[in-house]
C-alpha cells in the first residue's frame, strides 16, 4: 500500500489483509488496542479541513498506539486563512519531516490531488473527501460486520438514508462487493438515491419496510443537511416516519440483525433512541474498531513506503 485513498478497485486479498492486521491489534479483552513500535520515529499529520469527532480522534489514537509522533493542525487558526494554498500548506508541513498526512476535505478528489503532488515516500490517507470516499470508515464497518456476523460473505446489507451525499456508502459498497456480500440494498427517498447505485451493484428500495425484509445488517446514515439545498431538504418529522429506524421497522430484519451507523447520529431523525441504544446496536463498537483499522492502514502504508525507499536506495537513486 502506498497511499490509502479509496476502497474502489482494491483486491479482496488486500482488504482482507487490512482486516486481519486490525484484528491482530485488538486484545482479547476487547477494551484495549495493543501498543506496537511499527511507526516509531515517523511523523503523522492530521489535516482536517472539515469537522470530525470520530475519525480525527481515532487516527490520533491509532498513530500513538503505533508509537508515531502526531501533529494535529488546527485549520481554523492556520495560515490557510491568509490565502496559503492547499499544496503550499502540505509542502511546508512536509518540510517538517512529516511521513504521512491524514486528510479530510470538502472537495471530492482532494486526497487524490494531494497524493499526486507530494514527495515520493510520503503517504496520504483519505479521511473523507466530499461525497466521494471515506475508505477507513468503510474498512472499520467491514471489521464490525466480520466480528459480529462471522463473515462478510453471504450477508444481506441494507444502507438507509441520504445515499446521494454519502462518501461512506460509496466506500462501503465497493468493499462489500469485493468482500463477497450476498446482496447490497440502498433504501431512501428517490431524491437522495443517485442512479449510479444500480451500476455499483446495489438494489434500490424506496420503501423501507420492503428494503429491510430479512436483512442481516442495517447501516443507517444521517441526512447531510450541510450539503443540501432547501429544495432537497425533507421535513424531519416526515422523514422519520418514512425512513427513521424504529423497533417496529427493525423487527422486519432477521432477528439477529445488527444496526450500524458511522455517526454522528441524529436521534429522532434517522434513528430512534430505543434502537440506537438497543441490544442490536453495534454503533459504539464501530468507533472502537476504528482505532485498530486505522493502525492497520497506517502501518501498511508506511511499510509500502519503506519498501519503496529501500528499492530506490538499492538502485542508487
Ligand atoms: N464517521 C465519521 O466520519 O465521523 P466524524 O465526522 O466524527 O469523523
UniProtKB/TrEMBL annotation:
<protein>
    <recommendedName>
        <fullName>Aspartate carbamoyltransferase</fullName>
        <ecNumber>2.1.3.2</ecNumber>
    </recommendedName>
</protein>
<feature type="domain" description="Aspartate/ornithine carbamoyltransferase Asp/Orn-binding">
    <location>
        <begin position="153"/>
        <end position="300"/>
    </location>
</feature>
<feature type="binding site">
    <location>
        <position position="167"/>
    </location>
    <ligand>
        <name>L-aspartate</name>
    </ligand>
</feature>
<dbReference type="GO" id="GO:0006207">
    <property type="term" value="P:'de novo' pyrimidine nucleobase biosynthetic process"/>
</dbReference>
<keyword id="KW-0665">Pyrimidine biosynthesis</keyword>
<dbReference type="Pfam" id="PF02729">
    <property type="entry name" value="OTCace_N"/>
</dbReference>
<feature type="binding site">
    <location>
        <position position="82"/>
    </location>
    <ligand>
        <name>L-aspartate</name>
    </ligand>
</feature>
<dbReference type="GO" id="GO:0005829">
    <property type="term" value="C:cytosol"/>
</dbReference>
<feature type="binding site">
    <location>
        <position position="264"/>
    </location>
    <ligand>
        <name>carbamoyl phosphate</name>
    </ligand>
</feature>
<dbReference type="InterPro" id="IPR006132">
    <property type="entry name" value="Asp/Orn_carbamoyltranf_P-bd"/>
</dbReference>
<feature type="binding site">
    <location>
        <position position="134"/>
    </location>
    <ligand>
        <name>carbamoyl phosphate</name>
    </ligand>
</feature>
<comment type="subunit">
    <text>Heterododecamer (2C3:3R2) of six catalytic PyrB chains organized as two trimers (C3), and six regulatory PyrI chains organized as three dimers (R2).</text>
</comment>
<feature type="binding site">
    <location>
        <position position="263"/>
    </location>
    <ligand>
        <name>carbamoyl phosphate</name>
    </ligand>
</feature>
<dbReference type="GO" id="GO:0044205">
    <property type="term" value="P:'de novo' UMP biosynthetic process"/>
</dbReference>
<comment type="pathway">
    <text>Pyrimidine metabolism; UMP biosynthesis via de novo pathway; (S)-dihydroorotate from bicarbonate: step 2/3.</text>
</comment>
<dbReference type="InterPro" id="IPR006131">
    <property type="entry name" value="Asp_carbamoyltransf_Asp/Orn-bd"/>
</dbReference>
<keyword id="KW-0808">Transferase</keyword>
<dbReference type="InterPro" id="IPR036901">
    <property type="entry name" value="Asp/Orn_carbamoylTrfase_sf"/>
</dbReference>
<comment type="similarity">
    <text>Belongs to the aspartate/ornithine carbamoyltransferase superfamily. ATCase family.</text>
</comment>
<feature type="binding site">
    <location>
        <position position="137"/>
    </location>
    <ligand>
        <name>carbamoyl phosphate</name>
    </ligand>
</feature>
<dbReference type="GO" id="GO:0006520">
    <property type="term" value="P:amino acid metabolic process"/>
</dbReference>
<comment type="function">
    <text>Catalyzes the condensation of carbamoyl phosphate and aspartate to form carbamoyl aspartate and inorganic phosphate, the committed step in the de novo pyrimidine nucleotide biosynthesis pathway.</text>
</comment>
<feature type="binding site">
    <location>
        <position position="104"/>
    </location>
    <ligand>
        <name>carbamoyl phosphate</name>
    </ligand>
</feature>
<feature type="binding site">
    <location>
        <position position="222"/>
    </location>
    <ligand>
        <name>L-aspartate</name>
    </ligand>
</feature>
<dbReference type="Pfam" id="PF00185">
    <property type="entry name" value="OTCace"/>
</dbReference>
<feature type="binding site">
    <location>
        <position position="54"/>
    </location>
    <ligand>
        <name>carbamoyl phosphate</name>
    </ligand>
</feature>
<dbReference type="InterPro" id="IPR002082">
    <property type="entry name" value="Asp_carbamoyltransf"/>
</dbReference>
<dbReference type="InterPro" id="IPR006130">
    <property type="entry name" value="Asp/Orn_carbamoylTrfase"/>
</dbReference>
<feature type="binding site">
    <location>
        <position position="55"/>
    </location>
    <ligand>
        <name>carbamoyl phosphate</name>
    </ligand>
</feature>
<feature type="domain" description="Aspartate/ornithine carbamoyltransferase carbamoyl-P binding">
    <location>
        <begin position="2"/>
        <end position="146"/>
    </location>
</feature>
<dbReference type="GO" id="GO:0016597">
    <property type="term" value="F:amino acid binding"/>
</dbReference>
<dbReference type="GO" id="GO:0004070">
    <property type="term" value="F:aspartate carbamoyltransferase activity"/>
</dbReference>
